[in-house]
Amino acid sequence: MKVVLELARIILIFGILGSLLGQLLMFVYGHFSIPMNSYKWLGGIGIYLLLFILYRNKWQFSGYYTGKGIHKLSRPACMVLYSTALALIIGTPIMGYTLEMLA
Question: What is the distance of C-alpha 69 from the center of its chain?
Answer without folding.
Answer: 22
